[in-house]
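Chapter review: from sequence to fold.
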Amino acid sequence: MSKYLNEESITPEKTPRKEEEVEDTVQTNLETELLSAFDPIKRMNHGFKHFKIHEFNKHPDYYRKLAEKQEPKFLIFACSDSRVSPTNILNLRPGEAFMARNIANLVPEFNKLKQAGVGAIIEYAILALKVEVIVVIGHSRCGGIARLISLPDDETSYDFIDDWVSIGEPAKAKVIAEHPGASGEELQTLVEKESVRNSLRNLLSYPYVESGIANNTLKLLGRYYDFVRGEFQKLDDDDDNKPTTNIQESD
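The token string follows.
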């Protein structure tokens, strides 16, 4: 470990260099690293160097203020899938969003005796951080939703996954009832989207959410990220189910 730390120190170099030269070096290192054998220590160190040079050092006032307190406007529920990072796809900066990521971006109904981790996130985000918007983001080719669809026919057993994805059973049942002929990719996409709506309905079972909506201090939004087509769709109650890509590019 010490060998790697010595070779890839994250402290500033003693000999001053032009900022653009340092930036080019870090960028080249990152690109080279992605094409070479994976080294977790080097990847983390290079990643932090890139952030420090391109973001932290360039905006000292922003990060000084952020160090004092966080005031995020969003609480975002997203999948743990490595291809679905709200920070990247929505171009968010540190401090803008309180994040909750889990398998299949699910939100269970209010229950003090079960799923307390999710409940604590929602409670803290609303009562302590005063977030103004809760967004649930679903996505294409979700492994968690694929597992939900396979139940109970798949004989493979897991310690935690099946119980967790069963939160989406109402969404699965609704899609099957409304689209009895759907299968394969079509069924998967329909359940992925309906699961977002189901999580939005479940959010209404939390008293702090219900109160925030009643007082017009909180809004719920549903979105769907299709990483195959590069589209971001709205899935609210007034959903027109049309990609918003062109709208975003023109804004």
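Two observations follow directly from the output. Residues 184-203 form the longest helix (20 residues). The longest strand covers residues 219-226.
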